[in-house]
Design brief:
Elements lengths: L5 E4 L6 E7 L4 E6 L4 E6 L4 E7 L4 E6 L5 E5 L3 E6 L2 E7 L8 E6 L5 E5 L9 E4 L5 E3 L8 E6 L5 E6 L4 E7 L6 E9 L6 E7 L5 E6 L3 E5 L5 E6 L4 E8 L5 E7 L5 H4 L6 E5 L17
Length: about 290
């Protein structure tokens, strides 16, 4: 897929992640997870700023129905960010030993959120429902739960597990939010790097970032690869579509604990490219967790 890649924010993030387009603000938000930072990029002014510098890791966020951000942090904490202020909403007691790692809002306003493993516990996948209840969405543990996305028919949810080099596909019950029939959609064992964040475009294709692989790869809904885009950074962490017509892709990367001689020129920066002809993304679903 021949595209022209542009570096738009040279933030040198330890772990840049979770980019989301905010249509009302016409800006892109993304996180630097371990540093607890939330960044905002305005393409109209071609300027970016850190709008939140928190003491806890910021594993991901969703956009609420009212336009505020629902932030998923360390120690199982979930908070609402609006007008420059972060306020706690709830604490998931069974996740206080870890931090969140990637989240997604579903078509009914539920949120699915993964947590990182520790030496003693595997990571988990939670569902935060619109009535405020919280439950474990998948009884299986995760080494590293990661990027998620819904199929066009909204009958399935993709969930990435990085350490397993796999993207799973679940049946999704819209009425209850239940996930079932987990099976492997992409088996990426033997590929360079591991699958990380992802998104699904308006044709149903899956775009998967490859941590330590330096690429974003595109797959049809049949699991066949349709192309890949290389980046000047080894740790490519996530991809999303943005803009008025959702025809611009933004990609986050990580510098982690290394330097650019080893991690690649541009490691930790935010990149952008125009989507290939005919490709557009979809607006992300809004969360409706009570705050």
């Amino acid at each position: 897929m021949p595209v022209s890649i542009e570096r738009v924010a040279d933030t040198r993030c330890h772990t840049g992640e979770g980019p989301l387009w905010h249509p009302e603000e016409e800006c892109l938000y993304w996180t630097d997870i371990p540093n607890g930072r939330l960044y905002r990029y305005d393409p109209a002014s071609d300027d970016h700023e850190c709008v939140l510098d928190d003491e806890r890791a910021l594993g991901g966020f969703t956009i609420q129905e009212d336009g505020s951000l629902l932030c998923f942090r360390g120690e199982g904490r979930v908070g609402r960010f609006a007008d420059g202020t972060l306020e706690d909403v709830t604490v998931i007691e069974s996740a206080t030993y870890t931090r969140f790692n990637d989240v997604i809002a579903g078509p009914e306003g539920r949120v699915y959120a993964g947590t990182m493993p520790t030496d003693d516990e595997l990571g988990r996948l939670y569902c935060l429902d619109t009535d405020g209840t919280i439950r474990q969405a998948d009884t299986e543990g995760y080494d590293i739960p990661n990027g998620m996305g819904f199929t066009l028919d909204l009958e399935h949810l993709y969930v990435t597990e990085s350490e397993a080099n796999a993207v799973y596909r679940f049946d999704y019950d819209r009425a209850t939010g239940e996930l079932s029939n987990r099976r492997v959609f992409l088996d990426l064992a033997g590929e360079a790097g591991v699958p990380d964040g992802m998104t699904v475009d308006s044709d149903g294709d899956v775009w998967s970032a490859r941590w330590n692989g330096g690429v974003v790869a595109r797959y049809g809904d049949d699991g066949e690869e349709r192309g890949r885009i290389e980046f000047p950074a080894k740790k490519v962490s996530c991809v999303t579509f943005a803009g008025e017509d959702y025809d611009t892709a933004y990609v986050t990367t990580a510098l982690e604990g290394g330097d650019r001689e080893t991690e690649g020129d541009g490691a930790g920066a935010l990149f952008r490219f125009d989507a290939p002809d005919g490709v557009t993304g979809r607006p992300e679903f809004r969360s409706a967790f009570p705050t």
